[in-house]
Amino acid sequence: MTIEQGLALLLDSDRMAANATAPAPATATAPAPATATATGHPALRADPSSPSWPDYDPLVWDALVAAHELLGPDYQYLSTMAEVRDAQVDRLSRKDLSTLLTVMVRGERFSTGHLIKFIEDGRLQQALAAALGFLAQPE
Q1: What is the pTM of this model?
Q2: What is the 3-state secondary structure of 65-76?
Q3: What was the pLDDT predicted at 24?
Q4: How does DSSP assign 63-127, residue by residue?
Q5: Which residues are CB-neighbours of 79 under 8 A, at least 6 positions away?
Q6: Nearest to 65 by CA among 122, 117, 24, 109
Q7: What is the pLDDT of residues 85-139, one digit of tens each?
Q8: In the chain, what are the helix, strand and coil shares in percent, each to the nearest 5?
Q9: What pairs with residue 56 in β-bridges?
Q10: Is 134 or 29 the better-scoring residue by pLDDT?
């Protein structure tokens, strides 16, 4: 499977919801973990050992990191992140999208839970769809 196929698979909301909410098989010694956070968003799963920390669906994080690496990280994102952090994703240039993806990845690495707002307002999914569009175009 190519990275592009993986991103497209993630963007299929039925697939993402099914993957994020499928309960783990119960065992005789431990109950199955919860499958959604208080927000109920399918890309977030509850982590019973640490309920205050989000447990992102692995597809979400993998797709974000793949899109980020394929578009290329913005090493100067600190100077431009304010311009793109709250911008409409469909109006971003390739460079600006790279900045936004860098903000998402770096923000989550330094502040657990940073991605929640991007997931809940749909901008993560929009950014991944936009990344697919840019990847289909020659630079």
Answers
A1: 0.68
A2: HHHHHHHCCCCC
A3: 35
A4: HHHHHHHHH---TTHHHHHHHHHTS-GGG--HHHHHHHHHHHHHHHHHSTTTHHHHHHTTHHHHH
A5: none
A6: 109
A7: 889 999 999 999 999 999 999 998 888 888 988 988 999 999 999 999 988 887 6
A8: 60, 5, 40
A9: 44
A10: 134
